[in-house]
Design a protein that fits this description.
By secondary structure, the chain is α+β, with helices and mostly antiparallel strands. The chain has 2 domains: about 40-165, Copper amine oxidase-like, N-terminal domain (Copper Amine Oxidase, Chain A, domain 1); about 175-285. About 20% of the residues lie in helices and about 40% in strands. About 25% of the residues are buried.
Length: about 290
């Protein structure tokens, strides 16, 4: 057998050490910062669902104070199913009555709840976005699980995320749905509407509505339920301006969801402001045409 002695043995040993160190450094620094965080993360972070320890195919990790978990496996155990859209890089978590959409890298999520066969959408801000790390898709567990109706907690002593509860057959958010303008005595007086126009947000006129369209829109606005849940006030699409006979103005705008209409203005000298669940008018605001 070939043996090295003295200085030659020392040189070979040092060469091996340097090579291993360099290779390790390259492997670590070639990874994106998020992936390095996972490699260096303490593997002690655990998760329990209804007091049962859950094994995941990738290690949980904490980012900006929020625990992220691998998407697949855990959601199925909670009774949901997941989707992935490669082109848009969008994660979907779905049940019979709720859908959650998270765009990779975005701090905004869309939550759609089916209430009495009406799709009610919320646009909510995330503390930390979904991410792809080492070919695994990770999602913020507290936001997603609580949106599905579960209770989420963190046990500092054992570094454990706990999820408790069962998936509700019907998710109820009745407290977020209020009376219509008509029921509140704040209905827009249809007979007093002098003009109704559709414009871009830059106030470039697209069209004027005819009387039939005006009647249809006013009826829909007056009878639609109001919504008091959370949403991001980010104007999008077009706007509708309603001018009354006394020159009072009512403005209709959208924050990007076809299911909602933000109404503001004056009726009989009184300020009126509301978010309405009104898909018929919301669709018009996000298009460049009138009601078909």
């Amino acid at each position: 057998m070939f043996k090295l002695k003295g200085k030659n043995a020392i040189l070979v040993f040092m060469s091996v050490v340097i090579t291993v160190f360099f290779a390790t450094y390259v492997l670590a620094t070639d990874l994106p910062s998020d992936e390095q965080a996972v490699l260096l993360e303490d593997k002690g972070v655990k998760m329990q669902i209804n007091d049962q320890l859950v094994q995941t195919d990738a290690a949980l990790f904490v980012k900006e104070g929020r625990t992220l978990i691998p998407l697949r496996g855990v959601m199925e155990q909670l009774g949901a199913f997941v989707t992935w859209e490669e082109e848009s890089q969008t994660v979907g978590v779905h049940t019979d009555s709720i859908s959650i959409e998270l765009l990779i890298g975005s701090d905004v999520a869309k939550v759609t709840k089916n209430i009495n066969e009406i799709a009610v959408e919320e646009t909510l801000k995330l503390d930390v976005p979904a991410a792809i790390v080492q070919s695994h898709t990770f999602i913020p567990i507290r936001f997603v699980a609580e949106a599905l109706g579960f209770d989420v907690d963190w046990i500092e002593e054992t570094e454990t995320v706990t999820i408790k509860g069962t998936l509700p057959e019907n998710i109820s958010i009745e407290k977020e749905i209020g009376s219509s303008l008509e029921e509140m005595g704040k209905a827009i007086p249809e007979e007093e509407v002098k003009e109704m126009t559709l414009s871009t947000l830059m106030q470039e006129r697209i069209k004027s509505f005819d009387q039939e369209e005006i009647n249809e829109i006013i009826t829909s606005l007056n009878t639609s339920p109001t919504y008091s849940g959370a949403y991001i006030m980010m104007l999008a699409g077009n706007s509708i301006t309603i001018t009354l006979e006394n020159d009072e103005i009512i403005q209709l705008t959208s924050f990007g969801s076809k299911g909602y209409v933000v109404l503001s203005g004056q009726i009989d000298g009184e300020a009126v402001s509301a978010c309405l669940i009104c898909p018929q008018v919301g669709t018009v605001l996000l298009s460049d045409i009138g009601i078909k």
